[in-house]
Amino acid sequence: MGKWRIPGGGLTVAVVVAAVLASCSGLGADGDGDDGGRGDGGRGDGRGEKSASAPLSVAAVERMAAEPGSRCPVRYDMAGAVRAAGVHGAVEDGSVEGELPEGADTPLAQSDGALVDCGYRLGTEQVRLFTVGVAKGYAVSVLLPQIQHDAGIPMDDLLDYAGRAQRAKRGEALLTSSGNVAAVRLPVTGEGDIALVLSVGEHRTRLSEEQVADLATRLASQARGRAPDAGPPAGRRD
Questions:
Q1: Are 92 and 121 in contact (CB under 8 A)?
Q2: What confidence tens digit (pLDDT) does each residue in 91-136 have?
Q3: Tell me, what DSSP letter sits at residue 49?
Q4: Are 219 and 198 in contact (CB under 8 A)?
Q5: For the chain, what is the largest distance between any 2 Cα atoms, rounded to a whole number of angstroms?
Q6: Cβ neighbourhood burial of 203 (10 Å; 0-12, 13-18, 19+)
Q7: CA 2 and chain centroid, separation
């Protein structure tokens, strides 16, 4: 399978990630307690995943990360979301990679998580769409080094973002101060936490902050697993 690695951010970022993970070892700090309303007891039986309308589970993200395939295993229609957000430019599919925990000290291992990285081109800009699921803590916390890398924000901004990410409600797009990265906590079947992180461009983007937030929100509403024999969504090109 494709391999992806969280970019290095130095010791300070590693300390921030460790502190955030330690501070959010349990879910429900925002009071939503959202388990998708399905009561399947956690990562386990996958009954809700048989329905095309069911939210993702952490177990489903793990399976996708283990065998990501050649196209994004999460049912995103990037071209459709781009058009609906009023963004101009052709959309092209790029690389698809997955990551499972390796080593006891990695953020994925500490949170018992997995992620899928789907790449695209939007006009001349690179777009990366991460879907991360964790059994412990908050999914966005795992990607703090990636968020700092793509947004190019200073440590104070990253600390502020980490705090806001823990308080974010599901479905709420949370923008970085750079305006080119947005995270959304997703509905989840069972226990754990799942999030989408959208990165457009490098440190900046031609898109407005409203367009980035709108695009992330629309993609979040699409986030479902694909059936093994499902074809690509309609409208893959603008």
A1: yes
A2: 999 999 999 998 777 889 999 999 999 999 999 999 999 999 999 9
A3: G
A4: yes
A5: 45
A6: middle
A7: 17
